[in-house]
Amino acid sequence: MKYPEWSEIRKSMWAETLDFPMIDEETPTFLGCRYASDKEELAEADVVIIGSPYVSSSSDEWAGIGKEHWLAAPKRVRQQSIRYQSGYIQDFRFNVFDYLNVFDYGDAEIPPEANIGTLNPELILQAQAAVESKVNDALDVGALPVVIGQNSPCGSYAIAKCVAKHTRGNVGIVSLDTHWDIFRECPQTGDPRIAGGFSWLYKTIEFHDNIHARNLVEIGPRGMLEAPDVVEELLERGALFYSGWDVRRQGVEAVCKGLDHAYNGTRAVYAHFDMDVLGGAGPAPGDILGELAEPIGLSDYECIRIAHEVGLRGVQGFSFICIPPGSPVMYRVIVYIIMYLLAGKALRENEVRRGNDAFPDSMGRS
Fold first, then answer.
1. Which tens digits make up the pLDDT trace of 183-208?
2. In 13-22, which positions are buried (b, 16+ CB within 10 angstroms) versus exposed (e)?
3. Residue 359 confidence class, pLDDT cut points 50, 70, 90
4. Is 144's pLDDT higher than 70?
């Protein structure tokens, strides 16, 4: 799996002539936005980009692919973002950065030992806490945390937990994934405290009194992967489910209308994008995901469209895991998802500032 060096990336486009903040010698800030090294510098932030380089594997591989490629995702997404000259999105004909103050807060200080050797529950909890610290800093100043991660709990539960703790009222969840991640206990550790890759969603609902299955919208699982009893349990408890098959049959606009389910009766929403949901639908071949690849995946457009709709409706936490490794274009998909999400957020907040009180109501907020 060959990914270009930073020196090659910078020379391959007009980025060579641009100046932008650097987090380290190979990592620019996301789209050249301002870099914040501590919480005090986030005072004016509307959006905070956070890296979560964590992989839950006790070997040198995860899902059949070298761990180093998964861990590099936060850096590589930032590297690919620099190809874009500004926050101007042609589709909407405005510059996102004219409306939102976006800061890059660097990567969570995950203990190096958490990415090496056995899956020690105490180290996993330390890694999770490192992400929570940065997410809480963003939420404390009223900003939207956007976490670029790779595995749970650091790229999923850590964010949901912080949103739940900051919300006086119920929290809805919009989840895109190939897998429900609803094992009742983490099979990798057997520790009931761990909301791991197989169990983070079930544990999130179990651990937090203000997060309920009735406000979950699950989009993308398909085929024969899941234990039927747990899926049926959550559906009976009120979850709304669009399988990959449903997305194809009903269309993405019908799915976007169904997002109301996460907003009805809630005060906040957390959106979780597990990018193995792409499967083989592109733009890169499904096999780039190794053991995670499944047919009937969502397309890049469908993921970007749903993210934009979530931004329009309002979202208090957003994160990624399982970003397909090694392909520059797949890292660009993540850049698009973030920017079209923020375009939705900017449009929403601009309407609210103009006194269009009907706008948030029409987006499903109760």
1. 999 999 999 999 999 999 999 999 99
2. eebeeeeeee
3. very low
4. yes
- Please enumerate in sequence order all residues whose Cβ is within 8 A of that of 248, keeping only pairs 6 or more positions apart, or say none: 296
What are the DSSP calls for 141-170, one per residue? TT-EEEEEESSTTTTTHHHHHHHHHT-SS-
Exposed/middle/buried for residue 353 (C-beta within 10 Å: 0-12, 13-18, 19+): exposed
Query: 33-62 in b/e burial notation, b at 16+ Cβ within 10 A?
Result: bbbbeebeebeebbbbbbbbbbbbbeeeeb
Distance CA 80, CA 114 (A): 27
Find out whether the peptide bond into 325 is cis, omega within 30 degrees of 0: no
Distance CA 333, CA 325 (A): 12
Rounded distance between C-alpha atoms, residue 266 and residue 169, angstroms: 6
Are 159 and 317 spatial neighbours (Cβ–Cβ below 8 Å)?
A: yes
Query: What does the pLDDT look like over 47-65, one tens digit per residue?
Result: 999 999 999 988 888 888 8
271 strand-pairing partners:
174, 318
Distance between CA 283 and CA 331 in Å, rounded?
A: 11
Which residue from 238, 176, 228 is spatially nearest to 205, judged by alpha carbons? 238
Q: Which domains does the chain have, with CATH numbers?
A: 26-362 (3.40.800.10)
Beta bridge partners of 22: 28
CB 338 within 8 A of CB 30: yes
Q: Give the residue from 155, 176, 12 showing the smallest Cα distance to 80.
A: 12
Q: Is the Cβ–Cβ distance between 153 and 194 less than 8 Å?
A: yes
